[in-house]
Amino acid sequence: GVVDVAVRFDAYIPEHLTLADMRGSRVLSHPQALEQCSRFIKRWGLEPEPVSSTAEACDLAATTGDCVAIARAGLAVDPILKVAEREVDDVAGALTRFLVIGRQGSFGDLVGGSDPTLRTLWMATSRDLIGHLIDNVGPAFDEIITSPSGQVLLVTSREAEPDDDLPDGVRTLGRVPWTPRTPLVRLGGALPGVRHEIKPE
Questions:
Q1: pTM score, two decimals?
Q2: What is the 3-state secondary structure (H, E, C) of the chain?
Q3: Better pLDDT: 1 or 24
Q4: Alpha-carbon distance 175 to 88, whole Å?
């Protein structure tokens, strides 16, 4: 299954300081949040330091008093912290898409979907391993999402191939209802670590 969650990030700092005081300091957050707030980080000359969650970032900022935390808007934080700047995301209105994965049949029958909205999902350890999947003859919708480490999620309208025919490092997750995201147009190019490739059906 697929769940889309609207994301908005705020910057939190100790209550008695300003962002000008924090220029050049560490900025803590989940790695994905740091990627999504790169302009804010660059503007204040902050040094990104990934932690396990945005909540941990706020805890550390409150404890140490020497860093900025980036966390979701409205997060309940220690009273020593304040919101220094709201909506520090690079792209307003961003969504985080979660894939909900379970054993075949565990979610019951698909409802409310139609064939044009169903997509096959493949995971691969590198883009080289999925070349044969997207080079097949015939029109298709292909969306390739690449992580900074090189791992790949392929979302395609093509039917799944039998697992026996897939090379090591490639795994089929099945077919799910999938709404293509609206293409984002902004100055500065594509989102960090994300590559989209669309082939018209």
A1: 0.59
A2: CEEEEECCEEEEEECCCCHHHHCCCEEEECHHHHHHCHHHHHHCCCEEEECCCHHHHHHHHHHHCCEEEEEECCCCCCCCEEEEECCCCCCCCCEEEEECCCCCCCCCCCCCCCHHHEEEEEEECCHHHHHHHHCCCCCCCEEEEECCCCCEEEEECCCCCCHHHCCCCEEEEEEEECCCCCCCCCCCCCCCCCCCCCCCC
A3: 24
A4: 35
User: What is the β-pairing status of strands 47-50 and 26-29?
Assistant: parallel
Residues 69-85: tens digit of each pLDDT: 999 887 778 889 999 99
Using CA atoms, how far apart are residues 152 and 130, in angstroms rounded to an integer? 9
Q: Is the pLDDT of residue 116 over 70?
A: no
Burial (0-12, 13-18, 19+ Cβ within 10 Å), 145: middle
Instruction: Name the burial class of residue 81, with classes exposed (0-12), middle (13-18) and buried (19+) by CB atoms within 10 angstroms of its CB.
Output: buried
What amino acid is encoded at 53 in this protein? Answer: S
Nearest to 160 by CA among 145, 171, 142, 172: 172
Q: From CA 43, how far away is CA 20, in angstroms rounded?
A: 11
